[in-house]
Structures are given as structure tokens and as C-alpha cells.
Amino acid sequence: MALTPAQTAVLEQLRQHALLRWLAEDDLGALVGNATVRVFDQRAELFAQGDEARSVLVMVHGFVKLSAVTAGGRDVVLDLVGPGDVFGELGVLTQQSRAATATALTPCSVLSIDGRAFLTALGRAPEAMFWVIRLLGRRLNKATQQMTDGLELPAPARLAKALLELAALQSQATTDGLQISLKLSQRELGAMTGLIRESINKHLGLWREAGWLSQAGRTITLHNLSALRRLVAEQSEG
């Protein structure tokens, strides 16, 4: 099947992808030729926890939050994914329902690849399969670290660590610091850190007074990254 100019451009981009570049050229071309590009507004839901996993998604641009609701009703942020990231593959690989809800944090577009076709192509590319295993291992390590942080790290260190991770994910330099581009609500910060809103307000207020950061609505600018890093390091050791 002949590809359109737009599909050809996407194919060139995916040839550089850490996972998809391992697929056979014919398989990758077939996946792209039959895939669809889906566009979502900010805060739109891409899929919900419990949905049937029929596709694997590749972020073209924008950022998406993956979150789950626990049996006790608590909302937990599992991961934030950005351009080039693959997500939604776990449900396809295990043939189980979606373990998380995917919500657009910004306007975004994703390439939606048919799950069965993805599994077929993956089965013919051992290097790609090994890459998926490594990806799942990294995600397991991240989930384990989140659980460990929740049990061992004091509240200030958890919040400071989350802000530093957000700045590393996407930020822009200002004259006096780094402005975090992703605008998360305090509820979402709570879901990332396991902290209640009152605790988040308290520590953000103390850090504003100390000049470590400033806020304008949901926009947070970090002015003293070294102080935040030092706090995380000291409280992690303690």
C-alpha cells in the first residue's frame, strides 16, 4: 500500500524511534500505513482504566498523564509521557484491559497502531522484544521507586523531587530560573507525591517565602534548583 506524504514523514520519524527502528522495514511501513493519527485537546481522555486494550500509542507531540484509581479511591499518577514515548503496550502484550487512564496534559497528537498488528511485527523482531522487556523493567523500577518514596521520603522531599522531575521533563529558562511548562493542579501534584493539598500548600508557601520558587496560577518557576536538590538528597539520606 502506497503511503501518503504525511505517512511517509511519520515513517521517517519512527525509523529513529528506540523501539520501532528494530522492526522490519516492511512491518514498520505496514503499521504506519494502517495506523491513524489522533488529535486530542488539553484534558481530553485518550482511554480509561478498564478499557479494552486494542492499540499501542506513540506520542507525536504533547504530553499525557497516565493515572490509576486504587481500590480505596485514591488517584495515583503512574507516569508522564511525551514526544516519542510509546504507551498502552502493556495491555496489548498481556491481553488485559487498560491498567491506567490516559489524559492529555496539553493539546497532543498520537499515532494509534493496531495492537494485533503490533504483536505480529514484534514477534518477528527479537531486538524489539528485548527493548520492550527493558521498557517494562524501567516502568517496574519507577513504580517501585514511587512506592518506596511514599513509605520513606518525608513530604518536602517528595514534593521537591516531583517538581525537579517536571522541570526535567519540560521547562523553559527564564532570567532567574526554570519555568515548568506542564501546568498541573495541586490535586495532580498530590497524585504524583501521595500528599494532601494542605501539605502541598504549606511547603510551596515556605519555598515561595525562601525564594526557591514562584507561582502564577498553575505555573511554577523554580529559582533555586540547588536548594531543592539538596533538600531531596539530605532527606533521602536521613
What key phrases describe this protein's structure?
four-stranded antiparallel sheet; alpha+beta; 12 strands; 238 residues; Arc Repressor Mutant, subunit A
Describe the 3D structure.
- There is one protein chain.
- The protein is an alpha+beta fold.
- The chain has 2 domains: 5-150, Sandwich (Jelly Rolls), CATH 2.60.120.10; 154-237, Orthogonal Bundle (Arc Repressor Mutant, subunit A).
- The protein has 9 helices and 12 strands.
- The strands form 3 sheets. Strands 1-8-3-6 form a 4-stranded antiparallel β-sheet. The protein has a 4-stranded antiparallel β-sheet with strand order 2-7-4-5. The chain has a 4-stranded antiparallel β-sheet with strand order 9-10-12-11.
- Helix 1 (5-14) packs across helix 2 (25-34) and helix 6 (155-169) packs across helix 9 (225-237).
- The longest helix has 27 residues, at 126-152.
- The protein is elongated, with a radius of gyration of 20 Å.
